[in-house]
């Protein structure tokens, strides 16, 4: 088999599909996959591959059926392609197994060595509305089936259960996937359903130090769920007790006098002198945004004040050096230190947001969503 790696024609790329079949001789299939991986390293190569539906179909079949190194290389090719902005539609529409369902099944298969790559592909595809919606439909429909389809609950268990994957995959990129999915109102509603214990499983990971990717994703999902004003009192109440989880990463080792200490939740009292704050500024900003969302209504603001949030934020403000984070902190503190008479409205979300503030928030949200999982051409 010969293919000009520098300037292959579209026809030559399409011919690759015959060498990518599951039952193709191992050495031939390996050579074809190396060509594909090489092509994913350039924009021109990615465009050609994404236009070759038959090649994409064979890559998916290898991921679905082949446990050999060929399946691993095929999953890396899909990962590299999925980081390309235009990849969503052709990958989701490619013939063969349903793309979203295939990737979800592999991601939560306990003995799959392709799970991490599939998690990253899902994370990349879910950054865009069409991909996000397609993945959510699979999860939603899976929850209504009894045939072993992947459900939201199983996805969250895979993310939160240590050692879920028995062959060494970490599954950290399920965190960003969940963060992307919870941009959908339907997904937030499902996560916050009080008849399920889904949202609560995420809480221990707000201070999870073993993976920045997982921690960022989980906090992003929690922040997104905080946009649901109707759930605020439940989130702040004893069934969830979310506020201490959001404040803990912002808490330092500073001592408080006895009177102030008594105002703090038990989990935030008497911090060890070695206690450090969240090191990642983007996470700190998401935590502040989440708490600000929880201050939308008068009853929720009163509960946030009653748990000593101002005391934590006062010390945090002295420590913070990032200007954007400081601004978010100051906006939140401004809400907390005002009396309700000064605020003058029950629901802050009913107040029209100035255009410049709305534009800034939109840009920050879009920038966060555009960060892809890393590509791999090895």
From TrEMBL:
Residues 290-343 form the Protein HGH1 C-terminal domain. Residues 107-285 form the Protein HGH1 N-terminal domain. Belongs to the HGH1 family. PANTHER family: PROTEIN HGH1 HOMOLOG (PTHR13387). This is Protein HGH1 homolog.
């Amino acid at each position: 088999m010969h293919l000009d790696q520098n300037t292959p024609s579209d026809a030559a790329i399409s011919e690759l599909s015959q060498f990518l079949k599951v039952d193709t001789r191992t050495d031939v299939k390996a050579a074809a996959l190396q060509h594909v991986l090489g092509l994913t390293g350039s924009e021109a190569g990615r465009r050609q591959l994404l236009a070759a539906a038959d090649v994409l179909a064979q890559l998916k079949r290898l991921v679905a059926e082949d446990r050999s190194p060929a399946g691993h290389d095929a999953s890396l090719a899909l990962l590299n392609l999925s980081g390309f902005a235009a990849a969503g539609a052709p990958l989701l529409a490619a013939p063969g197994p349903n793309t979203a369902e295939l990737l979800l099944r592999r991601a939560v298969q306990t003995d799959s060595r392709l799970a991490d790559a599939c998690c990253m592909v899902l994370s990349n595809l879910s950054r865009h509305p069409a991909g996000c919606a397609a993945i959510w439909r699979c999860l939603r429909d899976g929850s209504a089936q009894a045939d072993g389809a992947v459900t939201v609950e199983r996805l969250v268990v895979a993310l939160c259960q240590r050692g879920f994957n028995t062959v060494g995959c970490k599954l950290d990129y399920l965190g960003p996937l969940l963060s992307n999915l919870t941009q959908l109102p339907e997904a937030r509603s499902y996560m916050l359903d009080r008849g399920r214990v889904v949202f609560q499983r995420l809480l221990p990971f707000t201070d999870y130090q073993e993976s920045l990717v997982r921690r960022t994703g989980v906090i992003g999902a929690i922040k997104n769920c905080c946009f649901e004003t109707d759930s605020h009192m439940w989130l702040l109440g004893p069934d969830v007790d979310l506020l201490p989880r959001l404040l803990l990463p912002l808490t330092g080792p500073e001592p408080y006098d006895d009177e102030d200490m008594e105002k703090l939740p038990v989990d935030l009292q008497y911090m060890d002198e070695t206690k450090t704050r969240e090191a990642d500024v983007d996470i700190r900003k998401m935590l502040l945004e989440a708490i600000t969302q929880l201050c939308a209504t008068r009853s929720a603001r009163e509960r946030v004040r009653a748990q000593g949030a101002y005391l934590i934020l006062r010390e945090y403000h002295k420590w913070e050096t990032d200007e954007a984070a400081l601004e978010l902190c100051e906006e939140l503190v401004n809400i907390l230190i005002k009396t309700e008479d000064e605020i003058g409205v029950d629901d802050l979300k009913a107040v029209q947001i100035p255009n410049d503030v709305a534009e800034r928030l939109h840009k920050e949200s879009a920038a966060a969503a555009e960060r892809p999982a890393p590509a791999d051409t090895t």
